[in-house]
Write a structure and sequence with these properties.
This protein has 834 residues and is an alpha+beta fold. The protein is built from 12 helices and 43 strands. The protein has a 12-stranded mixed sheet with strand order 32-33-34-35-36-37-38-39-40-41-42-43, with no helix packed on it. Strand 7 (112-115) and strand 8 form a beta hairpin. The radius of gyration is 32 Å and the shape is globular.
Length: 834
């Protein structure tokens, strides 16, 4: 016992050390000048690095992210290729970018430094002397940046329009887990230390400049900007075709910006910008915040109405999470390739948009990142949902608050094709369900670079928004607001981890949220409840049988509906298996799980049951022209007129009936009967399929199907029209990828095909006018293996097929390989077959 106590005492300091939170402080002073002829930056940088960790540091990792644009060997290029994007791979020397002319010194003395062996946009400074806990050093270096094309990713220029982001040497984060050095990526953002920025920017006088931080001094520049504001306010129309750059002023200006408690600095400049300025008041502290928008002629009619978008975003995010603490927020119209917009402290750049609602949504989303990325500086590369997901949750809440009738198509109502019922949130649900219905989804918690493009949008953004909306419906808006405001108060200007948010959520809600953080966040398990029975008690109350047919023990919302209106709503804690849920006396037409559609269920078609009637679970059949999205309140049958023609049936006209559009359904059918005007007979085709997506490491999807078709192949001697009838049974197996982002796809197919052909034979007396009809039948069995690697560079495919029938057997193989030529979007195609 004494030995155990002694051991615990010896280990206690190490345990405390491991658990104590700390963060480094990094303060920058940068002087940079823009050469808008060569598209280059020339700069000097001084970094005060304060070691607040308990550790002694012998080296410091530095990010040199402009080198991500330097060639084909970078992680940026390789990751883009995985996503099917070859812009970086085929970039010309003029389009590439890099950072060089580095000469690192620490406290005025030269240090040895080396590029990372794996990533050329990371380097390591070997300190001359160890940096002890509590001490600080000053790192200095000149640097030069060749600005890449803005067509590639975030840093870049299009002509003389500049987006200067992730542009300076920057220490990696050192936290409780050690160094967090990371290469530049377009999917998956950044993680940086908080501190201050004192940045002086020199550029031609006629550039309009928007940047992180407050302008220091610059009275003439402020006066010039306010004149720009007056000019913009007076303009009633803009020439969208006039996007030419005026000549640069031969004189230059130097503008200085300063900001504390931020972890990044970005700036944007363009000689064509119009400028508007506004002001908003934060809801809690009543602070005044200056708001700016800067934009070109192209979408100026939309941008001229955009100041309220910035103001409202600041107001609602402050209301729900905590007040915006900085003096200004700016949105600029920019040339951006990495998504529709991109966030930086105090400033955001917005890509091309086509309508006002989209512009508002993107501005609001990117301004919101001042909270989820900016002040709450989570590690976006490892936990992207803490940034993009939480921000998308607030984005949806903003739209539902400001535009409660917003539809799937924005703030306009679209009733065509039965789409009027789908609210704004449906876009998040579709994003999630497209992959989840096929079990191609990934957990919310995961590193950014490992998501497929579909899942980065559908899971990191959309599913996170859905599950936090679900959580808010369960615990209530007041507790959600209290939790998020406490999260903000405790972790602003720090680096929160997932467990930090979980701890606060559970304490404020006073609930065990294991079902949420363990299952909804850390796995791809599905949520699904269904009603199994409804029985009325003698006292008028109800027993409603509900079974958990999913994998998550999340709370379930049971609703009573009378005359199309909610007569009662109760949230029950989650459970496994089946339970009888008691419901108070109510007049009820039917019970429904999640009538408000707050639960991110994989299947809503089993959520409703009537207490009386012969078919309590069957929804009314609804015929819908063309098609629609899945409506759980109806048994949908889609239809559309179809026509066809072949040399024997001639013109045909019919109607196609089907139930499958997207997302994929488990049971699908298509029937397409047609009438042949030549033969006066029916022709057409049909297919019924069952899609099974097992939770398996081997199989991605197995589809069982039967199909058939009937057409003429000859008009034959009258009165005989000879028909070709085909019936097929099939099983298609798609194998699971070892890695979600893999471009390699493998599948097996089995077909059992039966063919019946009408034939005629002449009379045995050789009477040319007498024929005897009969039918011949053929059965063909087909097995095939298919491999396809759809990588952008050197794609390949291969097929092996075996057919067998009573008449023949056939084995064939084919392989195709494209040799991509370097530097050219051309290649040599090779085909081998036997």
């Amino acid at each position: 016992m004494k030995k155990t106590s002694l051991l615990l005492l010896l280990l206690l300091p190490f345990a405390l050390k491991a658990q104590t939170y700390f963060q480094q402080e990094v303060n920058y002073t940068i002087s940079v000048s823009l050469d808008d002829v060569k598209h280059e930056l020339n700069a000097e940088e001084s970094i005060e690095y304060i070691n607040n960790s308990p550790d002694q540091l012998t080296f410091i990792y530095m990010h040199l992210w402009p080198n991500g644009y330097s060639g084909r060997s970078t992680r940026l290029c390789k990751h883009m290729l995985e996503s099917g994007d070859n812009k970086m791979y085929y970039a010309t020397e003029e389009e590439k970018g890099f950072i060089d002319k580095l000469d690192f010194k620490v406290n005025g003395k030269a240090v040895v430094w080396e590029y990372d062996t794996k990533y050329k946009d990371i380097c390591k400074l070997i300190l001359n002397e160890p940096l002890r806990s509590g001490d600080k050093i000053v790192i200095t270096t000149p640097f030069h940046v060749k600005i890449p094309s803005g067509k590639i990713s975030r840093l870049g220029h299009i002509g003389q329009s500049y987006q200067i982001t992730q542009w300076y040497p920057k220490p990696a984060v050192y936290d409780r887990k050690g160094w967090n050095q990371m290469p530049y990526l377009s999917q998956g953002e950044f993680y940086s230390e908080f501190g201050s920025f004192n940045v002086s920017i020199t550029l031609p006088k006629n550039y309009v400049l928007g940047a992180t931080g407050d302008m220091v001094g610059g009275e003439k520049e402020q006066e010039w900007l306010m004149n720009k504001v007056k000019e913009t306010e007076a303009m009633n129309s803009f020439d969208q075709e006039d996007m030419f750059f005026p000549a640069s002023d031969p004189e230059s200006k130097t503008l200085r910006f300063f900001q504390t408690k931020v972890h990044d600095f970005a700036w944007f400049c363009d000689k064509r910008y119009h400028v508007l300025k506004g002001e908003m008041e934060t809801p809690h502290t009543k602070r005044k915040v200056n708001t700016w928008v800067m934009f070109t002629n192209k979408n100026a009619d939309l941008w001229k109405r955009s100041l309220p978008y910035v103001n409202d975003a600041l107001y609602y995010y402050s209301l729900w999470n905590g007040d915006y603490p900085y003096n200004h927020a700016t949105a600029v119209d920019g040339t951006i390739s990495a998504g529709g917009g991109m966030e930086y402290p105090n400033i955001t750049v917005i890509g091309d948009v086509n309508d006002g609602f989209t512009l508002e949504t993107v501005i609001m989303h990117e301004v919101g990142h001042n909270w989820f990325y900016g002040m709450l500086g989570s590690n976006e590369r490892q936990h992207p949902w803490m940034d993009e997901g939480l921000n998308s949750f607030n984005e949806n809440r903003y739209i539902e608050t400001k535009y409660p009738n917003a539809s799937l198509f924005g703030n306009r109502t679209v009733d065509y094709f039965g789409l009027g019922r789908y609210k704004h949130k449906a876009q998040y649900e579709l994003g999630y369900l497209l992959g989840a219905k096929k079990n191609q989804d990934q957990p919310i918690e995961g590193p950014a670079e490992e998501y497929t493009e579909l899942n980065y949008a559908g899971i990191v953004y959309s599913k996170t928004a859905l599950v936090f909306d679900y959580l808010m419906a369960y615990i209530g808006e007041k507790k959600m607001d209290a939790a998020m405001q406490r999260y903000f108060d405790e972790w602003k200007f720090k680096h929160p981890q997932p467990n930090d948010l979980r701890k606060i959520m559970e304490e404020v809600s006073e609930k065990d949220l294991s079902w949420f953080f363990n299952d909804m966040m850390n796995t791809s398990k599905k949520l699904d409840y269904r009603i199994t029975s409804v029985k009325k008690r003698d006292d008028g109350s109800w027993d409603v049988g509900v079974r958990n047919t999913g994998e998550v023990k999340g709370p379930v919302q049971l609703c009573a509906v009378k005359n199309g209106q909610l007569a009662g709503v109760i949230f029950y804690d989650g459970f496994e298996g089946k339970q009888l849920l008691g419901f108070p006396p109510s007049e009820v037409d039917y019970f429904k799980i999640d009538a408000n559609e707050n639960m991110p269920e994989i299947n809503r078609n089993n959520n409703r049951m009537r207490p009386r009637g012969l078919f309590k679970k069957i929804e009314p059949v609804h015929f819908q022209f063309m098609g629609s999205l899945d409506d759980p309140d109806k048994s949908q049958v889609f239809w559309t007129p179809i026509g066809g023609w072949n040399n024997y049936n001639k013109s045909m006209l019919g109607i196609a009936f089907y139930n499958n559009l997207f997302p994929q359904k488990r049971f699908e059918y298509q029937f397409a009967p047609m009438y042949s005007f030549s033969t006066g007979d029916l022709a057409g085709s049909g297919r019924v399929a069952y899609n099974w997506c097992p939770d398996s490491k081997l199989f991605q999807q197995i589809t069982f199907s039967v199909s058939g078709s009937r057409f003429c192949y000859s008009t034959g001697p009258q009165p005989y029209d000879l028909n070709f009838n085909k019936f097929s049974k099939a099983m298609d197996i798609e194998l699971k990828k070892k890695r979600a982002r893999s471009t390699l796809k493998q599948s097996f197919s089995f077909r059992d095909i039966n063919i019946w052909r009408d034939e005629v034979s002449a009379d045995i007396n050789f009477d040319p006018y007498v024929y005897t009809p009969f039918v011949t039948s053929t059965r063909v069995t087909d097995f095939s293996y298919n491999l396809k690697n759809s990588r952008v560079i050197n794609p390949l495919s291969a097929t092996v097929d075996y057919q067998y029938s009573e008449l023949y057997s056939r084995l064939s193989a084919e392989a195709n390989y494209m040799i991509t030529m370097k530097g050219k979007k051309k290649g040599i195609a090779l085909r081998v077959f036997a």
